[in-house]
Amino acid sequence: MKKKLHTFTKQSNKLSLLIFFVFAILHSSSALSQNTITFDDQGFIDNQEIGNPYTISNNGEIFRFTISGGATTSHRYRTADSWGCNNTGFGDLTAGTNSATTWTIETVSGSEIDLGTIKFNNLFNCFNFTYSLLIEGFKNNVSTGTQNFSVTDMNSIFTSSANFDDVDKIIITGTDIANLGMDDIEWQGAASSSTPPTLITTAASGVTATIATLGGNITDNGGAAVNERGIVYNTTGTPNVNDDTKVQIGSGDGSFSDEITGLSAGTTYYVRAYATNSEGTSYGN
Questions:
Q1: Contacts from 245-248 at CB under 8 Å and sequence distance 24+?
Q2: Whether the predicted model's global pTM rises above the 0.70 cut
Q3: DSSP for residue 235
Q4: How far apart are CA 176 and CA 188, in angstroms?
Q5: Which of 14, 224, 252, 275 satisfies CB 3.0 to 4.6 Å to 229 for a cystine?
Q6: What pLDDT is attached to residue 84?
Q7: CA angle, corner 46, sides to 42 and 49, nearest 5?
């Protein structure tokens, strides 16, 4: 009987781990779900001029599209061509009607994204017109790599390489991109490579009946700026910033300390240094 019960317990534990593992995968997949920028849900009408630069909000991020090179022009929204190719039923952003050579897409916030695909439409396809594009990714104004792509027809899908992971700007160039259509830009938020800071709590000094100098040393910021640091203390053990007395001591990396006054004589205090960046709060010993 004991053996059977023990076996059942093992199986239950395995089942629990499997359920947790599946949940973790689903949660991770959800967090990295693909987003799609479309232009046919903005209330535009065919051939409407919509400015240069043009911005659009999508799933919490704002994207800015800028046309440059050639004659001054404006973005246009198109649902049909105007040259007898009989292309209809799309809802594309185009680079206007004048000659243009460069199309820039960037996140207004400066946040990085992973680019997936872009659908391009050649609105001159019945005239055997070809757009030969050079597409380049950037992060913090440093190139992450390029891809060449040729648009000869409607529904030409550009599929990005790993060069377009973790970018904040994409530049599309060609000899003449006027009236090249763009739609259905798939993207997802780039996975953060940052972690909470690493730090130690330094030994108390200058201790009197009611005063002590307390602090810490941040040895690694985790790849993100430390926007708050300090010490937290209590008289019960394992202090944390949410429940106990917190003293902020500036921001940034390195060593920090402050003289704490008003302590009670004859009392044991438990102290930890803390530091916070965009990925969370961590503590010293």
A1: 246/274, 247/214
A2: no
A3: S
A4: 29
A5: 275
A6: 82
A7: 75
